[in-house]
Amino acid sequence: MVLYSCTKEVRIDIPKEEPKLVVDARIEKGGFPTVLLMQSQYLYNLTNLDAYFSSNISDATVTLVRGLDTFTLSPYFISELPMQSQITLAEQLNVELNELAFFPLKVYSSLDPNLVGAVGQTYTLNIQYNSQTYSATTKLLSPIALDNFQWIPSAENNQFGVCRAFLTDPANAKNAYRWESKIITTVNGSPKDYRFRHSGGSYFDDQFFNGLSINFETRYPEKDNSYPEEFNRHFKYSDSLVIKLSHIEYPVYNYFDKLRTQLENSGSPFSSPVLMPSNFSNGALGVWAGYSSWYDTLVCLP
């Protein structure tokens, strides 16, 4: 008896789509807008920092409409932006401030003091690029405060603990939030964190607690290897941290929630494809996001 088999090589040609505009833009209460424009890359192109930097767009026409006023945003190198805008951009890209200085990117923004984010205002971002116009609108909602928060020491080691927050969600509205924190305890004379940090699940909505009071626990978003391994994401006794709770529109939450799902499923052959939403018109990718934030300080004491 002879056993044999045959194989056939199958080649699949994936069509190469035209590059699309990719927008990563935000405006925060009390801050200037920051608009990063990139060009999408073909699936099988090289994926490295050089390719990312080379896709940066700085020859578009970008305007921001607020009520009856229209403002023109100009492209700036990161070092030309005010320090608070640089910190916001570091948070936006989730990189350290000293690393950001080496990013040869241009970011659209404004230095006009009349164009800082204000609660209750609606902002329409218009982008003209390659004879196409793209638009998106976001609104700075009223900030929502926590009812209370406290540091809870671990039963195994009372030098480390978590933050427990208490939130009452407004009823009869679909609300979405983002949670961030930064430790302002000084280390060698400087604050431990210059920017707010967040975990992958920092965005959440009120689908399961609309109009209810809830409490939830949070940890430090990043590992601190100077702490014992089992507590390297905890807050340390006597630490001071600033809590930032942002009230965001549901389309903004939906974008970042789908983005997180896509990143977590990346490379898995068993995952379902994720269709990324966008609040831009005309096929642009990305999001124009407004953040209305509430801040308070917690000292890590029982």
Descriptive notes:
The model has no long low-confidence stretch (mean pLDDT 91). The protein folds into two domains: 21-140, Immunoglobulin-like (Sandwich), CATH 2.60.40; 148-249 and 295-299, Immunoglobulin-like, CATH 2.60.40. By secondary structure, it is mainly beta. The strands form four sheets. Strands 2-1-17-16-10-13 form a six-stranded mixed β-sheet, covered by helices on one side. A five-stranded antiparallel β-sheet has the order 5-4-3-6-7, with no helix packed on it. Strands 8, 9, 14 and 15 form a four-stranded antiparallel β-sheet that branches. It has helices spanning 49-54, 83-93, 97-100, 250-265; strands spanning 21-28, 34-39, 61-66, 69-77, 106-109, 122-129, 132-139, 148-153, 160-168, 176-183, 186-187, 190-191, 203-205, 213-218, 235-236, 240-248, 285-299.
